From TrEMBL:
Taxon lineage: Bacteria, Bacillati, Bacillota, Clostridia, Eubacteriales
Native species: Anaerofustis stercorihominis DSM 17244
Keywords, alphabetical: Isomerase, Pyridoxal phosphate
Stated name of the protein: Alanine racemase domain protein
Gene Ontology terms: cellular component: cytosol
Pfam families given in the database record: Ala_racemase_N
């Protein structure tokens, strides 16, 4: 059935091995993030065999799918109060920045007769999650250490996802100094210093990662082969592990500019059109409900995407050398956002290639 996304398990496995080996060579463990593919067991298996030391996800629903893998499970989104019971039940580690939430985790861990590991997040300027004040963080360290069913596992940070702040050695050095201050002030040893996501892998790839960072949470660089500081492909990795295929349902010659008064489209936008004369247009049966159209790149570089509604995408085939027929399929490479949307959509079938 179409649309479908073809998933190259071999490419994902090789990317995992290459990324994990490079990280391990400088003392960094990798928590591989599974949220893009909803913790699909077939893909998660590639991450495990490829050498990741832990699996992480932002959704408890996805972590439930990973119980067959005997390794640490990380919840990488700050826990909601409404999911505390499941956080303890399905994750070994969670990222936190609110002492009230950690107290709830401690209480629930006591009920379940277990110990839960927490990583306190420090905001180093990206302005997403984390303590912006080091003094506030240190104050909560003291409180966490008094909890009997919570282990202060380490500290971490997140960069690039919200504020698009590029990881720099001097930025991550601040995280290491916070770790050293905690250890000195409280006479403890923190096991984990988690220095970010695929944007921080750029420092690993360039040989610029600082000492003291011993953990990264990596998704896109493994799955798509891209570093996320500048959005560029990493040399030596596979970049086409997810290919979307959609079927042509209409193929006709039509004007390039709509006829009549132009208002707003189905999504509240007023479109603009360039008059290119009559063009050969194809409609494929995939739309904004299935995938992020802006994140699709036709494998056939002569094809131009003109736009999309919720269920249809319009293509310009005027300058294409290949002869496309009704019922043929068109293939697209996907960026991170498009992969996330397509893998999440229940309307997109999946085909595994190994």
């Amino acid at each position: 059935m179409f649309p479908k996304i073809k998933i190259d398990l071999h490419g994902i496995r090789e990317n995992t091995t290459r990324v994990c080996d490079k990280c391990k060579s400088i003392g960094i463990d990798v928590t591989a993030i599974t949220k893009v593919f909803l913790a699909d067991e077939n893909i998660a298996e590639c991450l495990v065999t490829g050498g990741t030391t832990a699996l992480g996800d932002s959704r408890i629903e996805n972590l439930k799918n990973l119980g067959c893998f005997n390794m640490e499970k990380w919840l990488v989104r700050i826990p909601m109060e409404s999911e505390i019971e499941d956080v303890i039940k399905y994750s070994d580690v969670s990222l936190n920045s609110e002492i009230k939430t950690i107290r709830l985790l401690n209480k629930e861990a006591y009920k379940q007769d277990t110990t839960h590991k927490v990583i306190l997040m420090a905001d180093l300027g990206d302005l997403r999650e984390g303590y912006f004040s080091t003094d506030d963080l240190l104050s909560d360290v003291d409180k966490v250490l008094q909890m009997k069913n919570i282990e202060l596992y380490g500290i971490g940070t997140n960069l690039t996802c919200f504020g698009a702040i590029i990881p720099r050695p001097e930025t991550l050095q601040k995280l290491v100094k916070i770790k050293e201050r905690i250890e000195n002030d409280f006479d403890i040893e923190l096991k984990v210093v988690s220095g970010g996501n695929s944007s921080s892998y750029t420092l690993v790839d360039r040989g610029e990662m600082i000492d003291g960072i011993n953990s990264l949470r990596l998704g896109e660089v493994i799955l798509l082969g891209n570093e996320t500081s500048y959005g560029t492909p990493v040399e030596g990795l596979h970049h086409d592990n997810f290919i979307l295929e959609a079927q042509i349902v209409e193929l006709k010659e039509k004007p390039s500019v709509p006829i009549g008064e132009i208002g707003i489209d189905a999504f509240g936008n007023k479109p603009e059109f360039v008059n290119k004369g009559t063009m050969k247009r194809a409609i494929i049966a995939v739309g904004k409900q299935d995938v992020r159209i802006d994140g699709m790149t036709p494998v056939d570089s002569d094809i131009e995407i003109l736009g999309a509604s919720s269920d249809h995408t319009i293509l310009d085939l005027t300058n294409v050398n290949k002869i496309y027929k009704l019922g043929d399929t068109v293939s697209f490479k996907l960026d991170y956002g498009a992969t996330l949307a397509a893998m999440t959509s229940k309307y997109v079938d999946k085909e595994y290639i190994d």
